[in-house]
Amino acid sequence: MAEESPIIVEFRGAGFEIGAAKILDDINLQIHKGEILILLGESGCGKTTTLKLVNRLIEPTTGEVTVEGRATTEWNPINLRRRIGYVLQEAGLFPHFSVAENVALVPDLENWDAAQKRERTAEMLELVGLNPQKFANRFPHELSGGQRQRVGVARALAANPELLLLDEPFGALDAITRVKLQKEFAALVKNLGKTAVFVTHDLHEAFVLGTRICLMDKGRIVLNDVPENFRQSDLPLAQAYLETISTEESLAADGHR
Amino acid sequence: MNFFQFLQQNWSELFALTREHLFLVFVSTAFAVLIGVPLGILLTRRKSLQTPILGIASILQTVPSLALFGLLIPLPFIGGIGAKTAIIALALYSFLPVIRNTVTGICGVDPKVKEAATAMGMTDGQILRQVELPLALPVILTGIRVAVVIAVGVATIAAAVGAGGLGTYIFRGLRQNDNNLLLAGAISSAVLALLADFALGQIEKIYALDVRRNKTAQRKRKFVLVGAAGLILTILTLPFLLNLKSETSNSAIANQKIRVGSKDFTESVILAEILAQNLEQRGIAIERQFELGGNLAHDALVAGRIDVYPEYTGTAYTAILKRQPLTDAAEVYRQTRREYAEKFSLNLSPPLGFSNDFAILVRGDVARKNNLRTVSEAVPLARDWQTGFGQDFMSRADGYAGFSRAYNFDFAKQPREMDLSLTYRALASGQIDLIAGNSTDGLIAALDLFQLADDKKYFPPYQAVFINRSDKSEILSETYAKLENAISTDEMRRLNYAVDGEKLTPRDAAAQWLKEKGF
């Protein structure tokens, strides 16, 4: 089904170098509408760099990255970023903004009127499972890690973007909270019909959330396939990842179904 | 008179000086913030500029404050004497903490938060206004607090360029050997510094992150902000409101106004007062720019910041014209007058009557015990004496080096170079044994000091005169005619003692003398 949907993001021979160091080398990748693409790999493999190329936090030094058919370098970066939701580890919430102000950030930048913002904020908080009456006026330091991450997701969704970028959003959470949020997030994205690119180093998470998994190593994509085929792969790196979850296979399968 | 009686009698002047002091500090800090914060922001955007600009700001802070004031005097527009120069100098000192803390504060914002802000599609300006500045505010406020405390201290030096403030009391206290003045100036500025530190610390606390998030603190913050803004406005506008009238009336007859300067010691201030009051009696508007240190008075006169100030022919001839000392008083006067006209187109008044020569002083009991009369008689005794001289005497052509050579002094100990007014005190208390004072100084009698006669006629004559800009010669000539040879050395010594010993203000002492003389 994913194959027939329109292409939202495309990497065409994209590379990124800092001086002589090749961080990314010849990345070719198509992301279709409605997919949850997982970028999987160890620290330093280039998965976060790949993500940042999409909303032009960085620009490719070779090749190009297109969003909705236009190269990111041709987009006005401000317009591009406001169309794309972004969630990062530890949420990156503004410590001096209340929860409501954090969620309403992009609508505020886009000059929505006050009533519209209030309504949208309440809707988003409900969506991520936070009671607006209770949480809207709190500040980030008064929340638990899981709650902060929920607010981060609400903020990313507030302006109703087509595309979401997530950089290990659940990485710093305790195991129970993480699993709960993973399940909720998977359902949420599916219901809303969003496209998402999700960076993780956790294969379990990749299986729970992903419709396709992109395994990266040393700045290259070494495997790009649906989760079912990932399980069958005889690639040594893929095998090594599969070993990490072989003991909890059944649990992962449950989450996926 | 004890300290509390002094405060009771002088509280209104102390209050006025404190207000001047605060005015200097607030205006200079405002400048430093208005320029320093944007500059700091620029440095976070252009990192390559950080090292050179922070370097310049650091170097500025190491320049001794009096030297900085001196450097500013001859500059057009920003220089001169008075509050403007002082404010610029203070602002230059305040730049470093403001710029550095702005940079540190902004660079210290969590990179995750900045990344989120960028990724949400905020423009650089929005990130700065909505994220970086609010989060860096406590650190920037700390920088401002440090700047204010530094400025309160340095502003005491501003009195040397005629900018007023509490330094006026400190300098006057040093000169007149008056602990009450010293204490009033020093304690007040210390209290100001502590109060400013405390008050700004409170504001900082309210802006600190975790307090900021709670509601009562937000209300308190508004209250404090309004209060602080009100206080600053009051302090800033008060001097203007009070000065407004005289300013406008002055500008109407600006051509007639005479700006009278003086050097930073009692006698110079008294002479300037005598001139000023006599001119005022003639209905001429006066602006007083008194107590200018070192050669500032001369620089200010040449630069056109003042119109006239009292000077001594010997000083003009050796220290300013850089000529070798002469002993003939009439010759020194004649040559100085001619060269001043040629070189600076400045005019010398007729001599006022007395000369204020260098006086080699010892304690009265030492003189009596050894039956000393002249400097030559002291030479054999002086081998083990500790001498102490003002900076001026140590450096000038007719000063220490020539003096000790002329009399064949062979001092075993290096002379102590110190503030001139402090040498009197040190001599009287026995810490040093020989100083070079001024022959008209009232303290000579008051402290039981003895002046050794200059039997080798080493010291050039220092006749008192006024020096004025040529365009004011006409208006001044009537007053000059009255004051010609009108003040004897004895009278001058009495006038000095009236101020230094009896604690009259120079203004009152001058008024009394003018009245006695029937001018």
Automatic annotation (TrEMBL), chain A:
Its protein name is: ABC transporter, ATP-binding protein (Cluster 13, osmolytes)
Q: Is ATP-binding among this UniProt entry's keywords?
A: yes
Q: Which domain of life is it from?
A: Bacteria
Transmembrane portions of the chain: none
**UniProt GO molecular function:** ATP binding; ATP hydrolysis activity
UniProt entry keywords in alphabetical sequence: ATP-binding, Nucleotide-binding, Transport
Protein's UniProt keywords contain ATP-binding: yes
Q: InterPro entries under this entry?
A: AAA+_ATPase, ABC_transporter-like_ATP-bd, ABC_transporter-like_CS, P-loop_NTPase
Q: Please report which protein family the annotation says this sequence is part of.
A: Belongs to the ABC transporter superfamily.
Outline the extent of the ABC transporter domain.
Answer: 9-243
Q: Which GO terms fall under biological process for this protein?
A: quaternary ammonium group transport
- Stored Gene3D superfamilies: P-loop containing nucleotide triphosphate hydrolases
